[in-house]
Every structure is written in structure tokens, then in C-alpha cells.
Design a protein that fits this description.
The complex is a heterodimer of chains A (540) and B (163). By secondary structure, chain A is α/β, with parallel strands linked by helices. Chain A has 4 domains: 50 residues, Single Sheet (N-terminal domain of TfIIb), CATH 2.20.25; 182 residues, 3-Layer(aba) Sandwich (Rossmann fold); 154 residues, Dimethylsulfoxide Reductase, domain 2 (3-Layer(aba) Sandwich), CATH 3.40.228.10; 108 residues, Barwin-like endoglucanases (Beta Barrel). Helix content of chain A is 29%, strand content 23%. Chain A has a 7-stranded mixed beta sheet with strand order 5-4-16-15-14-6-7, covered by helices on one side. In chain A, a hairpin with an 8-residue loop joins β1 and β2. With 163 residues, chain B is of the alpha+beta class. Chain B is 21% helix and 20% strand. In chain B, the strands form 4 sheets. In chain B, strands 1-6 form a two-stranded antiparallel ribbon. Chain B has a two-stranded antiparallel sheet with strand order 2-3. In chain B, a hairpin with a 4-residue loop joins β4 and β5. Classes of the chains: A alpha/beta (540), B alpha+beta (163). At the A-B interface, α1, α7 and α8 of A face α2 and α5 of B.
């Protein structure tokens, strides 16, 4: 008889319960049909949790410039490097994949090192949900299926398929139920919508602020300017506002994707503004929300460029190599220490330390719906050490974690001002320069299986008009060149993308390199917006 | 025993078209259990609809008839058409014979990837257990008429859509 160990999936904030069993040979996923919120149902990534545990690429010994060394030597090296740097020359970066306690310990570690350079390295758009608009109610799980008017901004179904079940039940429960979708791409979620507002890429927040402006004219938002900028008729925005404010029970949901949303902070706040004004609860479907550090990532990069950082600790799942633009900067840093679950395809210069995955450590946390405690469901990979043990090895002290609150509260008056400052026309359409046609490249982040992170995502969705211009058909090969990288793709001619826009999956690291990280000058927050790309037909 | 009773009931995989969001969790569940094999495939019927393609476990399976080595057999009691992976030689006859095109054209580990309705699992196939929206259901044949709301998408198509 198999023993099933229960846990809560840590891949996103939906908090699905799952079981893991081990038959002495391999780990397998078990479906816990009695546990809310998912009742045994799992998205593709949840199904792949067992692959994380016994993946052949798991790192099980420290690497120095790609070569194996012992833990004793690794810790000795860190001590040596630390002794050669002043405290202000050391930076500590943390990202997702750490438990709440571990983030607290990383904060305490930075304090112990005596450095103010404590940086959040999680640059994904999801961190926009860390900003909460004052007065907005957070949705409870039961409100998803009882909502009779649902507004979804972005592709929630792709991000959280398990929540899609409740939203679809709500859609079919009553003939008067209405589903409104605001997105730039005709997604499968949009196929279920009663009202689909297809905006120009990156302008979702303007459509949302327009809807909020219609519901509450006191906000004095220029609705017609919003409608013009996002390329939709004012009537559609009015229709959405009517649907949402007319229903007694409703909900506003939002999800963001890498390379799709122009400004995550405004996207998150505008969706919350609609919820606030329509008096409906709000839920932001994020994979993770990581609290900001003492130093913004933008300032951290400036410091690196000025050679002010000589030693770097990078804790957590996403690495410098996840962001193509950040990696070259790091060559300025002499001593690099990073933690990792997997061995990477490329050699990471410096020290790479193995840590247990989310499923191999105990943690306490909060999902969208409840507070949860996770027990380890598998033994840690041999050779891996917990962050607390690594920190203890470096400082020779047992540190207690500091309390870190991820949420930041923003007032309505502040954010309406931010929307107005963004109403400056920007060229977002196609233009022709010196014979090559520039397209707008968008990213699509889906809850795909973990195998997918290593699988190439080779398809690019191209509108039939653009396919005609390029002289390509389904299955042809095109090259895509952006400011940061060049990559080849298989053509998939699709009506889902508007003319002048192309769509690629951004779960594969190779495709992520096409997009670049930018920083908001006002707030210092990061964004990974749609990017301009040159596309031409090529031979594979 | 209760588990044996469950096994003996003839059940079918059924797709509720108006709940499928094309997330491919069914495929992921299959891949995770069968080490990379996707015995459930998917088909794109329009820009906004992607459907799981599952084995129908036919009354008279043509794949079994086409198999030159008798590797594919039918369990009449449970209504499962199953394949002995050890003896499959990868000749692709079953793939060509399947009238629904559900068997993947690609061989994996030199074998055809044939669904066996997870017969090792009392509760039914993993793809139905994991389906996030409940679009893929494993139900008895008697329960089928209750699920058939709306109309068929196309003549003789197994997919039904709410009107």
C-alpha cells in the first residue's frame, strides 16, 4: 500500500492540495478529492510536481565555475571572499522559491553582513499584485462560483486553470450571468466571454481605468481618451461597466503575463480600481508575490555598473540568467554565490549551491484563499542544504527571521494621477523602417508542465495578413530578432492575434531572452513589456 | 470488494465541450505517470477551442484488429482496449487503423502510445481526475444522457455544446 503524503502546491498562489506517493522507485502525484479548493484537480504544473523531486538535472553538490567542490570548501571560499569585501560592497538578492521564513532569514542575513544592499530579484509582472489599493475587498473562494458578473483582465484561465472551473460554473449557473474579458489576444478564455474587449497590446490598464471612470464619474477619468488609446469603442467600456455595476454578486479577477502587460503596477491597480468602484471583491492570480527589498533592482543594477558591488548572494528560484539583460552586468561582480535546485545548461560563473525544492521543506504561508502549512513530502536531494543552514555556515550564528510584509497599500488619488501621466501617446503600432517590417512581439505565459521549461516552445502565432506579407504558411520557419536576442520559430497562422502583433510562449528560457527588463522611473518597479521585433522568413 | 465492483462497471471518458479550456492538464497528468508518454492528445478545432483527444475504447477496436502481433487486446468485462507495451514492435499499424486518429503518430521508446484508462487505478484515469474544470469526466454509460445538454458540435461528433 502506498503512503500518500499531503501538501499544498507552491507553484502558484491558488493553493491546490495534492498528494505525493513513493513506491520505492519513483514519486507519483495523487489526487486528493476531498480537499478544497481544487478537490483533486490540478493544472499541468501541479501534475509535474513529481518531476521536480526526482528530475535528472537536480543539483546535488556545490559547483564552482561548473566544477564540483565540497560543501566545506564552498563555505571556506565564501568566508574568504567575504573577508576581502567591505560590507557595503556585498549585495543580497532574493527571489521566489523561498518560504516566508526563509525571506525573513535572508533579511536577517543582510543585517548580519552589515549591508543595505538587500534586493528583491523577482522581476516578473506578478509582483504588481504586491500593490494593494486602499479599500479593495479580497475575494473569498465561495465568491468565485456565486459571482453573476465577472470581469477578467488578462488570461486568468491560463494562469490558474483550477480557478477557471469555479468561474465557468458561475458562468453557466444562470442565464443572466455575464463574463467580461479584457485582453489584447483572443485567448480561449475570451472564447467563453459574453463581452470581449480586445485592446491594443499593453493598454489593458487604460480600458480598466475607463470602465472605473464610467462607474464613478467623480474620478474624472477621461474615458474617451482611454477608449481611443486602447483602440476600443466607448460603448464597449460602458457595456462592461453596466454589467459589473448592475449585478448584485460579482468579481474582478486579473492575471499578468511576461511580455504582455506594459505596466504591471498600473494594470494591477486599475483592475482593483474597477473592483472598488463597482463594490465587488478582487482577486489577483499571481504565481508568487515577493516583498521588495531595501534597494530597488534598478538602483542595484546602477551600483553594479558603477563597480560598487564586489560580492553577490543570490537566493531563490529565478536566477540572473532568467533575465537576459541582467546577466552581462554581473560580470562586473568578482564573487558570486547563488542557490539552485537544478543544474543549468550553461555554466554559471561563481559558486552554485544546491538547495531543496518547495516539496522537500517545511513552510508556512498564505494562498489566495487560506493560510496553509506545508510538510515536506519527499526527502531533500542528498547534498542539498536549507537556506538557514547555508546562512549559519557563513555567519557561524543561528539567525532568527525578520518579519517582512509583502503588501504595499496605495491610495486612489495617487493612482489616478499615475494613470493620467501614462496617457501620453506612445507608438505601439507597426511601422516600417528601412525595408524591414517591425512587429510587436507579445509573450504568453501558461501553466504548463515542468518538462515544458526545458522543452523548446517553437511556435509563433502570426495573423494571416502578416503571414501574407512575409510570404509564410503554417509550418514555415521565421527568424525573430529583438533588441536582446534572435530566435527561430515555426509559423502558426492564427486569427487570435491582431495584425502587426506576434505571440510566443515565454515558459521556455530561450524565448524569455527576446524580452528585456525595463524599470519605471517614477516607482523603480520592474516591467517586461511587449517588445519590437524584426521578423523574416528563413530556412531551418 | 468495493474496488473490484468499481472496476467492473463499464465507464467511459466523456468531454464536456463547454468546460474545456485547453489547458492540457490531462496530457500533463498522463506524461507525468507514463514517463513522457502522452496517451491523451489534443486537437485544435478553432482559435478558441482545444480539445482532449482520448481513446474511445471501441466496441470493435480496429487498432486491435490491425495489430499483426496481437499486442492490443480488449477486456470485454471492463470495456478497456489495452496494449502490452513490452511486446509492441512499433510498426504503427494501430496508428493507421484508428478511425478517430487518437493514437499519436510519434512513437515513444519505439512503441505506440495507447491509453489503458489507467487500469491500475481504482478511481479511474488520471486525466479525468486532474481535469481542472471537470470537462473530462469518467462516467458510466447510463449517466451519459444526463450530460448531453445542448447539441452536438457536428454530426456523430462526441462533443456536445450548451446552447
Amino acid at each position: 500500500m502506498r503512503q500518500v503524503k499531503k501538501t499544498v502546491c507552491d507553484f502558484c498562489q491558488n493553493g491546490c492540495h495534492l498528494g505525493v506517493s513513493f513506491d520505492g522507485y519513483q514519486y507519483q502525484i495523487e489526487y486528493l478529492t476531498d480537499e478544497a479548493p481544487n478537490y483533486g484537480r490540478l493544472c499541468p504544473r501541479g501534475n509535474s510536481a513529481n518531476i521536480v523531486i526526482d528530475h535528472p538535472k537536480r543539483l546535488s553538490y556545490p559547483l564552482l565555475d561548473g566544477k564540483e567542490i565540497t560543501w566545506a570548501r564552498a563555505l571556506e571560499l565564501i568566508q574568504e571572499w567575504r573577508a576581502r569585501c567591505r560590507p557595503e560592497e556585498i549585495a543580497v538578492v532574493y527571489s521566489r522559491g523561498l518560504t516566508e521564513e526563509e525571506i525573513g532569514i535572508v533579511w536577517a542575513f543582510a543585517k548580519e553582513l552589515g549591508t543595505e544592499n538587500l534586493v528583491c530579484g523577482y522581476l516578473e509582472p506578478d509582483n504588481g499584485f504586491a500593490y494593494q489599493l486602499a479599500g479593495v475587498k479580497r475575494a473569498q473562494l465561495a465568491e468565485l462560483s456565486s459571482a453573476r458578473a465577472v470581469l477578467l483582465a488578462g488570461d486568468v484561465f491560463s494562469k490558474s486553470p483550477v480557478a477557471a472551473r469555479l468561474l465557468l460554473e458561475a458562468r453557466y449557473a444562470d442565464k443572466n450571468s455575464r463574463l467580461v474579458v479584457v485582453d489584447s489576444i483572443l485567448t480561449r478564455q475570451a472564447g467563453f466571454a459574453h463581452l470581449f474587449i480586445q485592446v491594443k497590446p499593453g493598454t489593458e490598464f487604460l480600458a480598466l481605468s475607463g470602465i472605473a471612470g464610467i462607474i464613478d464619474p467623480k474620478l474624472k477619468i477621461d474615458v474617451s481618451a482611454c477608449a481611443v488609446q486602447c483602440g476600443v469603442s466607448q460603448e464597449k467600456l460602458q457595456q462592461a461597466a453596466r454589467i459589473l455595476s448592475g449585478a448584485q454578486q460579482g468579481l474582478v479577477g486579473a492575471a499578468m503575463s511576461y511580455g504582455r502587460v506594459d505596466n504591471p503596477l498600473l494594470f494591477s491597480l486599475c483592475a482593483q480600481l474597477v473592483a472598488l468602484k463597482a463594490d465587488k471583491p478582487f482577486v489577483g492570480f499571481a504565481e508568487a508575490v515577493v516583498p521588495e527589498g531595501r534597494l530597488s533592482f534598478r538602483d542595484f543594477r546602477h551600483k553594479i555598473a558603477e563597480n560598487k558591488i564586489r560580492m553577490l548572494f543570490w537566493f531563490g528560484g529565478l536566477h540572473p540568467y532568467s533575465y537576459s539583460e541582467v546577466m552581462p552586468d554581473l560580470s562586473n561582480v568578482s564573487f558570486r554565490v547563488a542557490t539552485s535546485i537544478f543544474r543549468t545548461n550553461q555554466t554559471i560563473p561563481g559558486l552554485l549551491l544546491p538547495v531543496p525544492s518547495e516539496f522537500e521543506k517545511k513552510s508556512r504561508g498564505e494562498t489566495l484563499w487560506e493560510k496553509v502549512e506545508r510538510e515536506p513530502v519527499a526527502n531533500p536531494v542528498s547534498g542539498s542544504r536549507l537556506i538557514v543552514e547555508i546562512v549559519q555556515g557563513v555567519t557561524n550564528k543561528v539567525l532568527t527571521g525578520m518579519k517582512v510584509n509583502p503588501a504595499k497599500v496605495v491610495r486612489v488619488e495617487e493612482m489616478v494621477g499615475m494613470v493620467y501621466s501614462s496617457l501620453v501617446p506612445e507608438p505601439r503600432t507597426v511601422n516600417q523602417e528601412s525595408g524591414t517590417i517591425n512587429y510587436l512581439l507579445l509573450g504568453e505565459r501558461r501553466a504548463i508542465g515542468l518538462g515544458g521549461f526545458f522543452d523548446p516552445q517553437e511556435e509563433i502565432a502570426i495573423n494571416p495578413i502578416d503571414a501574407g506579407k512575409l510570404g509564410v504558411q503554417n509550418g514555415d520557419w521565421v527568424m525573430v530578432k529583438t533588441r536582446t536576442a534572435e530566435e527561430g520559430f515555426l509559423v502558426k497562422v492564427s486569427q487570435a492575434v491582431p495584425a502587426g502583433v506576434m505571440l510566443v510562449g515565454v515558459d521556455a528560457h530561450k524565448n524569455r531572452r527576446l524580452f528585456s527588463v525595463e524599470f519605471d522611473e517614477q516607482t523603480g518597479s520592474s516591467r517586461i513589456p511587449p517588445t519590437k521585433a524584426e521578423v523574416w522568413r528563413a530556412q531551418r | 470488494m468495493a474496488s473490484t465492483e468499481i472496476k467492473r462497471k463499464k465507464k467511459r471518458l466523456f468531454v464536456r465541450l463547454d468546460y474545456c479550456i485547453g489547458c492540457r492538464a490531462c496530457e500533463a497528468a498522463c506524461r507525468s505517470r507514463f514517463k513522457g508518454e502522452a496517451r491523451v492528445r489534443y486537437a485544435e478545432i478553432s482559435e478558441t477551442a482545444l480539445l482532449p483527444l482520448t481513446c474511445r475504447h471501441c466496441e470493435e477496436p480496429l487498432c486491435a484488429a490491425a495489430c499483426p502481433f496481437g499486442v492490443i487486446k480488449k477486456d470485454e468485462e471492463r470495456g478497456i482496449v489495452y496494449q502490452s507495451s513490452i511486446h509492441c514492435v512499433g510498426c504503427k499499424s494501430c496508428i493507421l487503423a484508428c478511425p478517430f486518429g487518437v493514437l499519436d503518430q510519434e512513437l515513444l521508446r519505439r512503441m505506440a502510445q495507447k491509453c489503458n484508462l489507467c487500469y491500475d487505478r481504482d478511481e479511474g484515469p488520471r486525466c479525468a481526475a486532474t481535469c481542472p474544470t471537470g470537462a473530462l469526466q469518467f462516467i458510466e454509460e447510463e449517466e451519459l444522457p444526463e450530460q448531453m445538454v445542448g447539441k452536438r458540435v457536428g454530426a456523430r461528433m462526441p462533443f456536445w455544446r450548451r446552447v
